[in-house]
Each structure stands twice: as structure tokens, then as C-alpha cells.
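mind reviewing both lines:
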Amino acid sequence: MKKLHFFLAFLTAVLLGFGVQAAPTAASAPPPIFVLNSLDATISVIDPATWKETQRIPTGKEPHHLYLTPDEKSLIVANALGDSLTFLDPRSGAVQRTVRGILDPYHLRFSPDMKWFVIAGNRLNHVDIYKWDGTDLTLAKRIATAKTPSHLWIDTKSTTVYSSMQDSDELIAIDLPTQTLKWRSKTGPLPADVFGTPDDKFMMVGLTGGEGVEVYDVTGPAPKLIKTIPTGKGAHSFRNVGDKKHVYISNRVANTISKIDFQTFSVIESFPAPSGPDDMDVTADGKFIYVASRWARKLTVIDASTKKIVRQINVGKSPHGVWTLDHAPR
């Protein structure tokens, strides 16, 4: 046995001396990219080393959004029409379990203090607040809302939940400790994703029925609209760049992505993104943007420095949520 170990060590040293690298192990392989195919009720799992779809996982009906558990051991996929949550291993894509009886989970988010799990019920007009004990969910409060709650944001102190009301053209705020409605305010047409600045002072709202992003001061008892940032038609989904200064917004009708400086609330650059760009993720090194090309059934990879499309990968129908563990800070 000692001779065998010596021989293997000697062979490894020789191969490395000739520049031959050992094959990556499962533990060292890059984590996969997950794409939710909303109209197929599946998840495409893509290997970023080969850029091939390695598996397609069935889910409940209409998976739209996904979120990592606080312990980073599970990726939760919300199946809106399936009334269920699918838990996946974020490193392998293996299905861990399915939680049923979660009514109309569309968009979802954990509070920063990790005590609460909040879900927007898009078709049934409610926001659900669940207690999270590290393993299981217990419904604490169901809050009736206006029409079509779309996207959620929770402030850094875990005190306020913000939600856009897509078909009521409103932004609402919910007090998380008391689980009561704080205020509601009119917005521009078809508000979709929302994004809060790190200091909790401002809330940005993407107007899918408009051509830009509204900025609200939320420090007072009621929000104040302070600016509208022109970005492009169908401003839809935000993704933090990871530098605490900038955020991307996908403009689904204009087929572009805009980069916003949220210190000056201005667009500093825009670039093409094909076929109804929707949700995005950004690699940990900030070099690449992964974006769901909703109308083309593709995942598009964009070089963040050159703004060029470097590849597209075929996925399922109506790709929406995009996520990888190897991502820049959110």
C-alpha cells in the first residue's frame, strides 16, 4: 500500500511538472446555474464549465422566483400555480424536498435577521409572512393587498416589507414586527421589481408599463417620489452589481439592460440584451451577467466589461428566475 501511495504521489508530481492539471473533483467544480422555465414547470441546470444543460428538473406549475435559505444549504423555488416550494441543493441541483400547501408563492424573500420568510401571492392578492425556524415554515399572517402583488424588498433592519402592486399601480409597506399595513402609495404603470438602497432611505420601482424607474424617499411616514430615471421601455427586474454603488435593471420591451448609479440616481450605461431580458444574476467576480431571455427560451451570458453577448444556452419555455451560488453580493 505504501508503494502504491508513493507511486501515485510520484505520478502526480510528474504530470504537474509537465503542466497536466488533475481533473476537477465534484467538490471543486463550479456550482451550476439554475434557470426557471415558467411555462414548462421545470428547472434547467447548466454547467458553467461546459455551458451545457446537464439536467432538467420537474417542479410544480409556474416556477418564477427562487431564494437561498439562510444556512445556504437549500435553494427554494416558488411554484406559483403549483402551490408548492421545491428545495434544491444549490451545489448539485439535487431535489431535497417539496413543501406543499404554500398558497400561490410567486416572489419570495427572507428577512435579513433570518426570522421571517415573506411570499407575494401574485394571483390571489395577498402577502404571506411565515416564521422560519431553520427548517420549517409556519404561517404567521396573511395580509390582503390590492391587485397582483409582484416583487418584495425587506429593509436591512428587518422592520419593513415593501411590495409592488402590479395591476393596481401601487407600492405598499408592511410593518414586519406587527405584520400590519403601514401605507400604500400610487406609482406609475405596472410596477414590478423593487430595490432598496443600502441605507434604507430610498426605494426604486421598475415600471414595466413605463420607460423607467421611480425613486421614492421612504424615510418619512409616507413615501415621496423624488425622481424618475429613464432607462427604457418595460423596466422590470433589478440585480445589485455587488459594489454597493450600482444596480442593473432589465428593460424587457426595449431589450436592454441599464446600469444605475444609486448614489446619483442616474443611468451611467445601457447595452443590448436580447429577447425580453428578465431576471439576472452576476458572477462573483463581476465579469459576467446571466440574463433570462424570456421570449427566446435562452439563457444569455453578457461580458460586463465589453457589454457583448458571449454565448446563449437553450433552456425551456419562458425562462424567468436565474441564479447561481457563485454570485456577487446581493
Observations:
- The first helix runs from residue 2 to 17.
- Residues 154 and 233 are 26 Å apart (CA to CA).
- The first strand starts at residue 33 and ends at 37.
